[in-house]
Amino acid sequence: MKASPEHDKQELQRVSSLSDEALVRLIVETRESSYYGILYDRYADKIYNRCLRFIPMKAEAQDLTHDLFIKLYYKLKSYEGRSSFSTWLYSFTYNFCLNHINRKHKVKQEKEQALHEQMEIEEKEIDDSEILALKAEKLKVALDLIDPNEKLILLMKYQDEFSVKEIAESLQLGESAVKMRINRAKKKVLEKYNNLGK
Description:
Elements: H1 5-16, H2 20-30, H3 33-54, H4 58-75, H5 85-122, H6 128-132, H7 136-145, H8 148-159, H9 164-171, H10 175-195
């Protein structure tokens, strides 16, 4: 026998008063879409606003929020209750947005890579031997005179012996962008070094 609409309304009111954690357990157990609708109503605006921080275009942030809630429906069973549901959800949102941005950046980087490679061909490359031949104390002074970001990338390469790939991963840049930054930093440090005199 089917429940009356009045019964359904009372049931939804009862479920609406549940805590997030109890509501999530109920959704996982029943897979009832109307219960999921209650969770959606509680968090849709908050999630949209968080997406908007990552993606400043409203239409794209709305699409991202919609996609996130579709994925969330299938991921709810992985919530173990170790933290509050809102904390877990915001972490899920952060990772979801980050993955989205990284996918976009990857496409952008691939498009830019050809351009960077062309620029690198045109820009005279500074050979490592020119840097390695510099006197240590004078080099230290020259390093302190360049931009901290340029100093960092040179220290990663020469002091910590990071590969271009490792630097790219650490700084979340494309490998071609890293090569270009290393070359520019080498050029700057050579200029500063040579200006220091004997």
